[in-house]
Structure formats: C-alpha cells, structure tokens
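dumping this here so i dont lose it
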C-alpha cells in the first residue's frame, strides 16, 4: 500500500473513532435515531475502508476479517437499538461479552451507552493495530528520461529502486521537441524504443500523475522552457511536476570538472548550471561530489541571500553521479559490438586497432562554425590516412542536428555532406546510438572538444586529448 493510501486508511479509522464518541453521546441523551444514523455511517465507512484495502492488499489481508467482525458489531447494536422499548440507562441493562473465539456479540437486553462505546472501541482498536502492523508501505518512484543517450544519469538509481522489494519503479520516457529558429516547437521525438532491453518502459500517456501521485519523481532535464535548442513536453517541466509528488529529485545528465568553491575564477560560469528551473524547483538535487555540492550551495546562496544557506545545504546532496557508476561497473566483455564496428576495428591478422573516441560538441560548432567543420575534415583525413593502425569512433553530440537547424541553419547542408562522406567512405565508426557509455568503454583514448564527457572519461584512467580548432 502506498504511503498516502495507508494514511487514508488510518484517517478512516480515526473518523470512525470520532463517530463512536458521537454514538455514545446520542445514546446517553436517548437520541436513538441519531445513534442509528451514525451506526449506518460507520458501516458505510467500514465497507469503503475494506474496499481500499482489498484493492491494494488483496482479499487475504489480515485486517479484512476484523472489519467483518466490526460490521457485525455495528449491525447487532443497530438492531438492538431499533428494537429497544426501554430507554437506555433506566430499568434494564446489558453487557457486551467476547464469545465464539473472541468474536463480540450483543446480548438481547437493552444497551447502555458505556457498553456500546466499549464494544465499538475494542473492535476498532484491533483494526487500527492490524493496519499499522500488517500493512507495509510501498513507495512509488518514477524516472523521466527524455533522451535515451542520457539514461545513464538515472540508471543506477533506477536499479536500486527496482531491486527494492518495497518500491515500485517506473521508467517513463517523455517526448521532446526541436526548437525552430523562432523558438516555436518543431519535430517531436520519442525515444522509448532506444533504451536497453532490460529496462521496462511505461507510456507517458498511460501513467496518471494526478491520480497516482508518486512518492518520488527523478528528472535529469533542468531547463523547462529555458532551452533554446530543444524542449521537453511542457507538462513535464519541473515547475509542473512539483504538484504531483512530495519528492522531485534532479540529477544532472552531465559531469563537470571538480571545483573549489573558494576559487573565484573557477566558479565563473557555474551560474548556468546552478540557477536552472530544475535545480530551483526540485526538493533534492544530487550532484557528483561534496566539492560540487559546496559550489552549488555558494552560487544559490549568493543568488537568494545568506539566510537561505541552510535551505540549500539540506537540498543539495553530493552523493555522486550514476554516470560514473555505469562506467565503473561495466567492462568491454559486457558490450554488444556491432558487426560493422568489428570490421573496422580488426586488422587483417586479427589484432585490434587502437580506437580513438572523437567527440564533437554543440557548443564548439556554434562558437567556431565554419572553422569547426574545417577542423573535422582535417581530423578525418588524418585518420583515413592511418586507418591500418587506428580507427576513429566519431560520436557527435546527440543534439547536433537540432542545434544546427535551430541556431546555425546555414551550416546544415555542409555538415550533412561531411557526415555522408565520413560514412560513405568508411573513414571510421559513426556512432549516433543512445549508448554513449559503450563508446567510452570500448575506446582507448579520448580526442575532441571540451565537454562533460571529458570528466566522465577521466574516470576510466585512459588518455584525454582536447582538440584545437585553429590547428589543421
């Protein structure tokens, strides 16, 4: 049973207890009709409570027989009150006894308010204890990735939730849109078919957030409407998701270089990572290290005032990045290497060539434009000339196409021709798959633009080389 549902069940019991007190007063005041109405209300409440418990726990829940006994008590009291001809508290009295293996029943004599209240209370106490003891709380955790290539930023957390016997974990890929040059939404993308086979998918159209209200929602997109290249479906903006859960948790899809919060020069530019809607709207933010936590706290406190520092200290957690968990736990033997890759990787004698992961970023292309395209041609030529010893594994940023079309449309034709030449002449491996970790694990060294992948790649201990656009 979910936490909110168990709270609802406990609230039911509390309301029944309050009704019992009103029944006692009504009987004491000889207002029999009011007592009869309240008893009927209790019966209806007990049936509703039983329905809630059967829906979540099944018909074999330990509390169900206790609710049935409680309904018998209500029925018997209701019957005797209705048939009573002598006012309560005058000529005759009655008692409530535990008979038939502890099942309470009401004698045929007229009832006094004390015995009625005692019988109802004893039965209700058993129900209350059973709900607390026998019904376990199950949590519901929802994971909302939007790009399959960024799933590694949530995967290890999902695995932990999925393996928890008291947690129901749902992975719900959400749609996103390319933005047109005017900022309006363009083509919609939905990548639910690109996730690992072992990850069960739930359709975003089938999950009712308002009705289910998950205990936790995990996101890795912090931008809401502030991304100029793409936008997730507005329903899934962090400012909207907050209303459906008690714990909205943001985990960055990227890794940054470690930073000292006291180094003012190093802290420059951190605003663009810290002052984002997802960070501000989340209940918890999980970052890659304690040093990064301190950097976030400093930026956020500076932006919102010194009095808020304690709030940010509780909200920002330096627990590590799931991206690092994924890289450190996987090995080459765990990978599925496509056959076309294998043909390029192996020498005629079967020996393995050196594999260089070539990463080209959106920011570098937007900054250098034509120069960046010229640099890429130069790199391709060098590796084509040395293809017997090394193979280039080119992995352009997943949003490269959307970024060019939105912000540098004049470059699109030339970029597309470059891609077609690279692939058509088998210059190297072209990797536009959602599995970025495979490229990191299988390669022997990194070459390319400075990006968050650099910090992740360093965790492998393999060489990292940053390209200079000015050198051809």
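and the seq i came up w/
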């Amino acid at each position: 049973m979910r936490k909110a549902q168990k709270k609802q069940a406990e609230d039911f019991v509390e309301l029944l207890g309050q009704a019992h007190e009103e029944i006692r007063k009504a009987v004491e005041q000889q207002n029999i009709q009011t007592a009869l109405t309240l008893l009927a209300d209790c019966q209806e409440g007990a049936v509703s409570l039983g329905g809630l418990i059967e829906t979540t726990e099944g018909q074999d829940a330990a509390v169900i027989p206790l609710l049935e006994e409680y309904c018998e008590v209500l029925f018997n009291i209701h019957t005797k009150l209705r048939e009573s001809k002598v006012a309560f508290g005058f000529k005759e009295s009655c008692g409530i006894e535990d008979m038939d293996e502890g099942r309470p029943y009401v004698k045929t004599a007229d009832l006094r308010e004390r015995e009625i209240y005692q019988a109802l209370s004893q039965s209700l106490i058993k129900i209350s204890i059973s709900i607390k003891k026998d019904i376990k709380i199950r949590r519901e955790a929802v994971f909302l990735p939007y790009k399959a290539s960024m799933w590694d930023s949530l995967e290890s957390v999902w695995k932990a939730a999925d393996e928890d016997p008291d947690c129901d974990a749902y992975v719900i890929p959400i749609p996103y849109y390319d933005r047109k040059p005017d900022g309006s939404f363009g083509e919609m993308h939905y990548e639910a078919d690109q996730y690992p086979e072992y990850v069960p998918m739930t359709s975003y159209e089938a999950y009712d957030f308002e009705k289910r209200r998950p205990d936790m929602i995990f996101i890795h997109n912090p931008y809401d409407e502030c991304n100029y290249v793409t936008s997730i479906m507005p329903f899934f903006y962090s400012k909207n998701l907050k209303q459906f859960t008690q714990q909205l948790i943001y985990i960055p899809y990227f890794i940054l270089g470690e930073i000292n919060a006291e180094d003012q020069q190093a802290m420059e530019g951190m605003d663009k990572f810290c002052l984002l809607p997802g960070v501000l709207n989340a209940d918890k933010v999980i970052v890659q290290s304690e040093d990064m936590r301190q950097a976030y706290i400093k930026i956020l406190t500076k932006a919102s005032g010194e009095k808020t520092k304690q709030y940010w200290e509780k909200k920002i957690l330096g627990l590590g990045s799931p991206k690092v968990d994924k890289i450190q736990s996987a090995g080459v033997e765990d990978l599925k290497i496509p056959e076309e890759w294998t043909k390029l990787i192996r020498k005629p004698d079967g020996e393995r060539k050196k594999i260089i992961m070539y990463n080209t970023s959106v920011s570098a292309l937007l900054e250098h434009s034509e120069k960046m395209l010229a640099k890429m041609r130069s790199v391709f030529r060098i590796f084509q000339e040395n293809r017997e010893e090394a193979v280039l594994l080119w992995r352009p940023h997943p949003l490269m196409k959307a970024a060019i079309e939105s912000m540098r449309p004049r470059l699109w034709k030339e970029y597309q021709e470059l891609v077609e030449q690279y692939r058509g002449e088998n210059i190297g491996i072209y990797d536009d798959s959602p599995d970025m970790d495979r490229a990191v694990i299988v390669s022997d060294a990194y070459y390319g633009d400075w990006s968050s992948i650099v910090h992740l790649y360093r965790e492998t201990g393999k060489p990292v080389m940053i390209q200079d656009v000015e050198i051809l």
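The first helix runs from residue 3 to 28.
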